[in-house]
Amino acid sequence: MKKLIAGIPTEIKEMSRYRAGKSIEEVKEEYGLKKIVKLASNENPLGPSIQVIDVIQSEAKNVCLYPDSDSRELKTALADKYQLAENKIFLGNGSDEILDLLMTLILNPGDEVIQADPAFIKYELAVKSRGGSSVKVPLAEDYRHDLQAMEAEINDNTKAIFICNPNNPTGTMLDREEIENFLERVSDEILIIIDQAYQEYITASAPFDGIELLDKYSNLMLMRTFSKAYGLAGMRIGYALADPELIDYLNRIRGPFNVNRLAQKAAVAALESESHLKTCQDLNNREKQFLYNQFAELGLEYIETESNFMMVNTEMPAVEVFKKLQQRGVIIRPGHQFGMENWIRVTVGNRADNEFFIRNLKKVLAERDE
């Protein structure tokens, strides 16, 4: 095994694994608590619709059978929703799998991929594990992608550019005109990947959608997911919309049964549950405003968000806030992981969970001021 381990690429040995936040079960066990409110992973507090749950329960008896390798029913549903040809749709075991497959497909050692900083950490992990290099460009002063600075980093080694829109962890977004102008300026030999995991939560005017641009820009890929607004994070189901030739190559390197039966059925039912999606969006909008008001009353700086999470400056080390909240039964994401030392990222929950969070945040801040 020594030679085998020694042969693992250096860039992988130097990587740190992605560490998700602690689960509710872990925190209960560690602190002996009965009530835990998890606001760390941007999950939907309402979960999936009743129709989705019914479909999962009904389909459970068939898990002894392999799933449809091509996810035909779900592809058809997505094609109908977006009025797209099915050969422009790729389905993955969560967006994470799509990122890994995509980087496997397009990167050679020494290739570069440009991304904002901070942004979703999975981008860098996918790039590095394929021998590529992540070129990180700091966000602008308004915490949005600095497209001009990103464009300035393009060179002969640039293979792709990630744009997380809305951005994780800041919740900020670029509008339609900004991204379209960027697409117009960048060479079509560079793949532009727009990660739209939180697309369904956007309330701003003139948001970038991109569906109508897929025919115009062969180097445009849109990535979306059922994990957030549709409440299916545990099912692991995401999709990409792109040029048919690129989709074809992705299908050649994926596993034959990469999307499980329950996920396929659940996603179809989720697309049909439009009233539930609207309920989730309305809840997020109300509770987002509630948190804005609470932070303002506490005199805390926050970043207005177009997603189901937000960043708030607690004016004390994020690691300390994280630990003290966790001891009180609240799980959030500390901002030091994103280079924002005094900030925390909190998911927009339901009213009871948000109130529990605010009560305990006040206690933590009171200790700071003693």
Automatic annotation (TrEMBL):
Gene3D superfamilies: Aspartate Aminotransferase, domain 1, Type I PLP-dependent aspartate aminotransferase-like (Major domain). Its EC number is 2.6.1.9. Its cofactor is pyridoxal 5'-phosphate. GO terms for biological process: L-histidine biosynthetic process. The keyword Amino-acid biosynthesis applies. Residues 35-358 form the Aminotransferase class I/classII large domain. InterPro entries: Aminotrans_II_pyridoxalP_BS, Aminotransferase_I/II_large, HisP_aminotrans, HistidinolP_aminotransfase, PyrdxlP-dep_Trfase, PyrdxlP-dep_Trfase_major, PyrdxlP-dep_Trfase_small. The modification N6-(pyridoxal phosphate)lysine is found at K228. One of its GO terms (molecular function) is histidinol-phosphate transaminase activity. It catalyses: L-histidinol phosphate + 2-oxoglutarate = 3-(imidazol-4-yl)-2-oxopropyl phosphate + L-glutamate. Pathway: Amino-acid biosynthesis; L-histidine biosynthesis; L-histidine from 5-phospho-alpha-D-ribose 1-diphosphate: step 7/9. HAMAP family: HisC_aminotrans_2. Homodimer. This is Histidinol-phosphate aminotransferase. The lineage of its organism: Bacteria, Bacillati, Bacillota, Clostridia, Halanaerobiales.
